[in-house]
Amino acid sequence: MSREELAPLTLACAKCGTCRTVCTLYPERKAEISVARGKVALVDAAISGLDGNAEALQEALSDCLLCGRCERACPNQVRVEEIIMKGRADLAEEMGIPAWKQVVFGRVMPSAAAKNAARTAAASAQKLFLRKVPTGSGLHYRFPEKFGWEGRTVPALPGTSFLGSLAHGEAVRGEVILFVGCVFDHVFPQVGRAAYETLRRSGKKISVFRDAACCGLPALVSGDKASALRCVEENIGRLSAASPERIVFPCGSCLLMFRRNVLSFLPKGHPLYGQAVRVADLCEDYASFLLETGVVSRLPDPPKGEKAGRIGYHDPCHLSGTLGKGGEGREVLRRAVGDSFAEMKGADLCCGYGGTFNIRDYPTSARIGQNKVSVAAEGGTAVIATACSGCILQMRDMAARTDPSLRVVHLAELVFQAISHR
Ligand code: SF4
Ligand code: SF4
Predict the structure, then answer these.
(1) Which atom belonging to ligand 2 lies closest to the Cα atom of 64?
(2) What percent of the chain has pLDDT over 70?
(3) CATH of domain 3-95
């Protein structure tokens, strides 16, 4: 492992244990190795040459949701996520990356054409191999038990992506760029559409970033730095050349990648570093853009008392926690739905998705997620609104398992509804 990069980061840990009191995973594992202090100590031992068990270290670093709760609570500002991601990347370099990950991260995610082909193939496979389960939050397919995913449900994939639904020449040029993200383009195109239509109410010319590569976060958190770099190179060069006034993200995790993670893993001397810094400054979350440009203040008055207190806001860890943008989402929601909004019980509990953690250990991810949606439903929430693609995927799956009447939507869908139906 790279001692030079990691030593200054691990040195900051005072072993105080505050991180254990907030760790999402600790109540599940009840082990020191699952919390930030344990992981930082293991990395420290490895770079000091005291522990050479790379496999055990890889296992420990993979067992983390990267929710960032430890980092936010840490009195010494230890950059836990950076330590874990750098550690994962160093170990992947040493031990190799599984073939399926190399294909998905290295070939599919950087290419818009490959993503389209993958969605089409996956949509056909769903119809052939999975069972349909209509739920309150939309049609899902359920995996058979033999997959070892304990009844996981996934959304029915659409025939056409959001980008594919745009008319020829539509949203090609504009001072503001919408970076829709893979999930809101290929899995929930209605979210991409709602985000686009509501951004247009700002009076600015909106262009949709076409042929976008994935933001690169899934590859980066898996330790596949080369594939993450390919995605970043594809995106940063073209975004920079377009010289937009703003780049708006409906997904908090894609935004975090552009605003923070890209800069922490691009080497300083990399030719794209300067451009990446300038692009990061232009990136903004969906709710802030709507507030700043007056879209929200111009919304028609919401109806009174329809479903008072039934719509809540879920805080995505990356967006509300790390980027501190929870207030903006609530302000937009309050204006869009009026007194139907009420603070949700357990709003800041992690949904348990954690990107690749959900694939690596689905039973644990599902226990954390089921607790999240149960707490919300018991508190009287009937609709959960949020602004992160991973959280929506996870909470829809959890709602299908726990309470099929619970709806999980993107904030933009409710704003679009408010604009269209009043
Ligand atoms: S809270 Fe911070 S300083 Fe304290 S043990 Fe955890 S990582 Fe180390
Ligand atoms: S990122 Fe989340 S799951 Fe990982 S160690 Fe920190 S608090 Fe625990």
Answers:
(1) 4
(2) 96
(3) 1.10.1060.10
